[in-house]
Structure formats: C-alpha cells, structure tokens
Design goal:
The complex is a heterodimer of chains A (534) and B (335). By secondary structure, chain A is of the alpha+beta class. Helix content of chain A is 31%, strand content 20%. Chain B has 335 residues and is an all-alpha fold. The chains are: A alpha+beta (534), B mainly alpha (335).
Chain lengths: 534, 335
Amino acid sequence: MPVFSTRFLAASTLAIMAAAPLHAKTFVYCSEGSPEGFDPAPYTSGTTFDASGHAIYNRLAQFKPGTTEVEPALAESWDVSEDGLEYTFHLRQGVKFHSNDKFTPSRDFNADDVIFTFERQANADNPFHAYIPGLTYEYYSSMEMDKLIKSIEKIDDYTVKFTLNQPEAPFLANIAMPFVSVLSQEYAETLQTSGSLEDLNNAPIGTGPFRFVAYQKDAVIRYQKNADYWGEAPKIDDLVFAITPDAAVRLQKLKAGECHLMPYPAPADIEGIKADANLKLDEQPGLNVGYLAYNTTVAPFDNPQVRHALNMALDKQAMIDAVYQGSAVVAKNPIPPTMWSYNDAVQDDNYDPEAAKKLLEEAGVTDLSMEVWAMPVQRPYMPNARRAAEMIQADFAKVGVKVEIVSYEWGEYLKKSMEEGRKGAVILGWTGDNGDPDNFLSVLLSCAAAAGGGANRAFWCNEEFSDILARAKAASDHEERVKLYEEAQLLFKQEAPWATLAHSTQYVPMAKNVTGFVQSPLGDYAFDNVDLAE
Amino acid sequence: MLRFILTKILYLIPTFLGITLIAFAFIRVLPGDPVLLMAGERGVSPERYAEISAQLGYDKPIWQQYLTYLGNLLQGDFGNSIVTKKPVLTEFMSLFPATIELGVCAILIATLIGVPVGVIAAIKRGSWFDQISMTGALVGFSMPIFWWGLLLIIFFSGYLGWTPVSGRISLMYFFPPVTGFMLIDSLLSGRSGAFRSAVSHLILPSVVLATIPLAVIARQTRSAMLEVMGEDYVRTARAKGLPPSRVIGIHALRNAMIPVITTIGLQIGVLMAGAILTETIFSWPGIGKWMIDSISRRDYPVVQSGLLLIAAIVMIVNLIVDLTYGLINPRIRHK
C-alpha cells in the first residue's frame, strides 16, 4: 500500500494555524464525541470529563500525570485524623477563577467554593442541585459520597474539614475525580441574580489550565490558555477540540495535519500508524479488565473445580491475537498490572485442554451445555465480544462443553446479566475510575455488589474475600492495604469466579512535533503540558 | 387552487397525530432503558432506579406519559434531552441548518446532474453514454455510503490533499453563528477565505449524500423520457417539423418531469437516511447524527420530538412538491 502524500495539506494547514494572528500556538485535539455538558458533576462519560473537568477545572487533589497517585492540587496539603474519620484540607492561596463576558471574579478561590461544590450535589434544597430539570449526580451517589460524608466544615477561609461516617482509604482518590471539580460559589451567586442558572453548564468558570471560550455541539470546543494559572502555565495559547466521532476519519485528519492528537484509534490501524513517519504512537496498558463471569450460584458452576477446568480450556493468547489484534496482555488477576497491589505471584490457570477435560470428569460433569453471553457493543476492554464468544465456544467444544452464544441489546444485557438465576457465563469488563483497587474489587466482586443493582455478575459472595476488602478500605496504612489486596487476589484466583481474559492496551497517536503529552492510566486526555515543537 | 392547497393541509393533521404516536411508541418498543444505559457496567440500585424513573416521569402508565407528551407539545414544549438535559427544540434548531445546507447542496447536485444525464441517456438510447451512465447509476444506487465516504476522504483529502477531511469550516475561522448556514455566515463574517473554506468543506459530504438520489433521478428521468418520447403528441410535434431541441425541451421534458419531481420529493426521505451516515463520517454537526446518538442512548424525549420535527419538515417538503406538481400539470389541480 502506498504511503499517502499528506505533506502538502499538513504543511499548509499548520502554516495557516501558525500564521493566524492571536493564535500563536493552537493545539487541535480530534475528540471522539460531544460532551454532555460542561458541569462536571452530573455527567458520567470520559468525553465530558476531558472537555470540562480536566481542561477547565481543578480539584482539591489530583492524579500525578501518568499515574494513579494522588497529589495536592487546590489543597496544598491535608491531615488525616488517627481514626481516619477527619480530613483537614489546607487550601492554596492566590488561585484565580476564570472570567468571561458576564463574570469577573472579585475574590480568589477559598473554602466557600469547596463547600459549595460538595453541598450542591449533596443537598437537594440547594438551588444548584437541580438547576436543570432532570439533573442527577450519578458519580456522587455511586461513589457513595452521600453515605460517606457526615459533614463539611469551614475552619477558616483556607481550611476545610471533612468528617466521614466511617474510615475510607479511597476517599482521597475519590476527591481527585472530575465529578468533584471545584466550582466558583461567587459565579453561582451571580448566575442566580441574573436568573441564568443554566450557564453553570453552558458557560463554565473554573480555575483550570484553560478558559472556556465557545462550544458548538458535534462540531468544536474552543479554549484559551489561563494566563493566571496557579500551576505551570500551559505552553499552548489555544486549545481546540475538533469533534470527530469516526475513528478512521480521526486518523485521516491526523495524517492531513488537521489535528495534532487523537484518542481511540481502531485496532486495525495501529500497524499503519507505527509505519507512518509523520506520526508517533504512545502506548500503555490500560486500567481495565475484560472477563467472563460464571454464575457461581448455579450448578455446576457453583463448583470452583468446574470453573478452573473451564478456565484451563481457554486459549487466551489466541483470543488476544484475534479479538484485540495483539494489543492486550493476558489477564490473570481482576486488576490490571499497572495498578498498585497487583499480585504477580498469582498462578493463572494455564491453557491445557487435556487437564481441563480430566478436571471436569473428576467433578462429575459430563455433557455440559451452557450459554455464553456476548455484549452487543465495543468497549476498550472488549473490542469484539461476538468473536470472543465464538473462540470460547470453540475452546470449550474441545473439552466436550457445548456453548450457545446469546446476546441482547446493551441496556437489556446489563439488566438481564444481573438477574438472579441467570444461565451461563457473561462477557463483560471494567475500566477504573480512580486507580484504587477497591474500585475494581468491591464494585465487581464484593458480596454487596452481588445483590440487586450491583455489578458482581458472577454473583460470587465470599465472606472472607469481602472481609479482606472491608479491612483494606478502612486501613489508612498504604503497605497494609497492599498486603490485603494481594491476599484478596490469591483468594480470587483460588475460587475463580471469572475467567480473567485480557487487559487491553491504550494507544494515543499524535503528530511527530507534539511534546509533553503524558498518557493517563485512567484514560483521561489533559493538555496542560503539551507543546508543539517548531 | 386554494381548495386544493387547503385539502392537502387538512390531510396533514391526522398524519401529524399519527406520527406523534409512532414516534412515541417506536423508541419505547425498542428494548433497553435510558436509566440502565446511563448507569452502564456499574449498574444501579433498584431504589436509585425508581428515583430517577420517577424524576423523568417514566413510572407513570404509558398512556399517561403519551398524553403528557401531547399536552406539552400543544404548549410548544418538546421536552428536554435525558442525556444533555437541554431542550430538544434548542438542540434541533442549532443542528438543523447544517443538515439543510448539506441536503440542499446534495439535492441540487443530484438534480442538476441527474436530469441532464437521464435526458441524454434517453435520447441516445443504447449508445455508449447510455450504457455507461446507467451502469454508473446502478453502482451509485447500490453504494454503501459509509465505505464510499471514507474512500473519497482517503483519495481526495488524504492522497491528493484537495479537500479537507471533515468539519464545516477550517478551525482558524471562528465567528458566532448568525443563520446557522455556514455558507451565509462565512460571507457575513467578512473574513477573507472563510466562504471558500466553507465551500471546500461542503464538497465531499454533499457528493456522498447526493450519490443515491443522483442515481435514482437519472434512472427515473431516463425511463420517463423514453415513455413520453413514444407518445403521439411527441410524434406529432416531430411530424410538424419542430426542431429537436423544442420537441425534447418543451413537449417531452415537461411531461416527463412529473414523475421526476415526485421522485425528487421522495428523495428527501432518502436524504435524511443518508444524512445519518454522511454526517457521522464527515463530523457534520447535523440532526442525522444527533438522532442516531439519541436512539442508541434511548434518549426518549429527543427521539420522539426529533422524529416529529423531522417528519413535519418532510411533510412540508412533500406538500410543496404536491403543489409544484399542480403547477406543472394542470390536470391534477382541476381534479
């Protein structure tokens, strides 16, 4: 295949961008979709968080770029009480909020803004709780902040104390997440006076590295660098999100020089991108897992021996080659290798159909036929569930297990797969929210999650395992937590409620002259530090 | 004529009611549920589910939901999107001009090329031109739009570098929308090169969207022309010694245009379907892509009101076609 000559257009587009007055350095990001809005609290998609939380706002704490480690942000430091119930945050001084044509802040960021940020999500009587009809705070409730936070108290203008109902180690990681991005209380008041409350969502004001300029749905979002930024000022002057939903078209735009960086390339395009001299490709194992969850409450899958046997029948490497086109690693634990406390000492059930057959015979299982559920949608953790299900079908056939592949519309799939007494095994996966192991293990495998409305699709309720998780959640010592989670992974493998399939790789293709972009393990796209080399 | 127009308009009322019912039912018949889709892999507790459903009014009996919807419609309230929480009408108005701009260009391309091609193919029946153009039309009619769009992007934008890959205008031009039509707004902005940029962005998507209607119009024109060319009045016109340009231009073409205009009118529906794919490929911020996103998220208010608005426009266009039909063919309006 000839390498397309895109140099002419690339050169001319970039020349135009460079020559435009007042647009000294414009960085164009070909984003994958429109944000649902710019208020980071009520929405749940990563697309929205990239466009609002990461570009426009800051939080009390933040994830150190390229890691899931929590570091100070709007809070310069914090103290945690002995019993783990009180968190006192010491706020940074001299942090300026953005201004726009309707609002110029009269004061710097302070404790009132922090309290407003949390209060308006927690308190249904706050005028900014439901300032748009139908607004709900899904992250606030699903991260159980409503049950966790007992009170928030202003000690002085630059000190805020959070009191919790029970000790919770992942609390700091939670408050580094976009849904608790700090809003300006003064701006909210201004909007209330002018009666245009919905501008909180349409014309956002934050403290972040970029100031919001304009948005046209499904077309473009424009930002300008925040010259007063408290952190290191961005090196680019303008940031533009060119909304481009199709992956193949994003790549063409990147090749043509119409944008500098894109998310989510199609797996089939990876080789071509690597071969293109004008592009570079950043790759990193994603913070995700794809799995096959047995229903551990239904015979014969209630017998761990049977689950082990089936896991041994799976040729996971072949699945990675065919389904993920090689861009994934075999999963042996429910958490990915980039996450702290990952237990590399765990022994996987290696591919061995003969041994699997024997194990099934020992367990007295003959003539087994089962359902395997294939998700109808693509996700980074599972690019083609149908194909994966077919491979599972073929692998299981070799050990004498008949598989019928079933699928439902996505909403139905999610619902039916959580119905009690579900037949067969379900293909699904998870992408981490905050880099805490609890965000995988408790959400997906605890006893609490096996009940209605949870996400434990193996219905696996192991008291010992849940107890370890509870202890780890309450422990404040990091080393102690690491040990507990390592122990939990051993127990998980011993019981094998899932066949752990794969952790997929995240690829970020960009133009050769892009510097300073650091991939986030959480899959965030933030451009605070990017630059364009001359 | 007035009576003709009034009857046509009266017919619209029951059609309109029917559409509200179909649009309302269609999205609810599809399996899936907006609340579950929003919750995703994480799931949602039964209490939370009930809470959100109640907030959205989905806990009420279905007929009551429909009546509320109708009642709100009568007050001009099209509802708010579940996903973005914005009023459906606001979103529609901001996206609709882009679709119209694309659709009008596509139908112009399809008509201005399709009709002459069909006429020439009919006159030179059996010639190489006829063979090639009709084979081309068959290929065009069967073209998978998504693949075709991507192919054109790779060739014209990637390989030749003649046209931009996607979007409506170069990102260097930044002005607030006035009419929402980029061709007009770019002229109003007074920025040199803006109009040119808008035109260059419009070329590929309108060609892609025009492909299927072009093929249909060319084939329809050809067969309509062939039919009237065999009519007695055409033979008479020829026999009385009129020059071929008059025979074809006045006597044949005018009569052949009646079914062709109907075809063009019917293509509006086809355009809407094509717009969904075309808008997705070319990152074109129009209502086609908006609808498909909303269907996949089961955004009930957007789908039911969006469909209604689109249907209203298609009906108005069809009405105009019917009226034009009456102008061209006096027999119809005198019926």
